Amino acid sequence: MIFKIVYMVFLAGFILFSCVKNKNFDSPAGNCVSDLVVNTTYAQVKDLYQDKTFQIQDDLIIEGYITSSDEAGNFFSVLHFQDKPTSPIEGFQMEIDVRDSHLFYPIGSRILIKLKGLYLGQSKDVFKLGGVFTSFGNISVGRLPASAVDEHIFVSCDITSIIEPTTVSIENLNESYTNTLVQLIDLEILENELSEPFALEREETERTLTDCADNELVLLNSGFSDFQSNSLPQGNGSITGVLLRERDDYFLAIRSMDDIDFINDRCDDFVDEFTSANILISEIADPNNNLGARFIELYNAGNEPLSLNSWVLQRYTNANTETSSSIDLSKLIIAAESALVIAANAEEFENVYGFSPDLEASGNSAANSNGDDNIALVDPFGTIIDVFGVIGEDGSDTNHEFEDGRAWRKRTITQGTTTYTFDEWIIYNDSGASGTINQAQNAPEDFTPGSRN
Predict the structure, then answer these.
(1) Among residues 48, 179, 380, 413, which one has the fewest Cβ atoms lying within 10 Å of its Cβ?
(2) Of 229, 264, 299, which one is at a domain's C-terminal end?
């Protein structure tokens, strides 16, 4: 994950353990600097990277404002900093082998970093500065040894700044916010996690933040933090933290419990799941000449568009009575009096039919049936809205076989049915039962994806 907690026990003697009661002692006296001159930007430093970890050789100096803190134990041996105290453009992270780093680098302090001799690399698409370690012959950025920290990181004599978090919503998060301090409002803990503590003891633990539109963000907590055993907050409100990232996945890490202000009532239930009897299966294709051109078409006979959030298409292979595979339709919205198409192979579908499908569902899916399977359309509440075939009966040699052919729903049918009704369909196949048409169908000429013609 973003920051792994390494548990180390230091036996320093009985005097140390008896004298130091907690970690809220005075910050050590130290020297600040005022003569270092910043001569590069974060963007320019990142531009030096050429797809592999390397040691910086130029006399470069950047500045940063500390956004993280290990005082409450939720960060370990890492500094997160951004280029400006307010409205930052970019952030950075640097691993250092220093405990209680908040005493040396408090939140808001301005630091200057001499980059010469440091290593620059990427981990899961996030830039890192630090020391180096080698694993299986690969060089990666690691913690800067404690003996080298004072050679590279200097605290400015400037007065500590107040870091103002950037207010952002979950849906607007992007990589420019990585390692910067952000604030999100109108959030709450996912309901089914409310009985849990922040983290399992000694384990990095993910909890889920959600807004009133059901957008989600992972709250990342250390099992060594001071608040590890605290119960997750019940209400709704604002939360501030350092935004972490792994490629396209985002995580929020708070510095302390003071970063959470959940004093408002929780969101009302957000309704984004709907059902309708007007959604039906309108065409299933198993072309005789091209298996890659298979598809399944759905039609909305209603006069309003409908989100298919949490709808699924289930395939019952041959005579199976249990679902063999499901297609999640959640990303689709089906327009009024319109069809949408789910292809077994999107690239081949476009090559054959001349347009892109609405969704690709390869593998053992309902869109990739070989003509003797049964298919059910199920709404968000687990209700079967429409069905093709007889679940539990192999379609071979029956009136619901469409091998090398086509199952086409008559245009007069405007609602789904929970029981297969042969009279609603025109079935083409190579060897089906009486009433079907034993005539193989070839793509594209014998099919009409996207249209009920």
Answers:
(1) 48
(2) 264
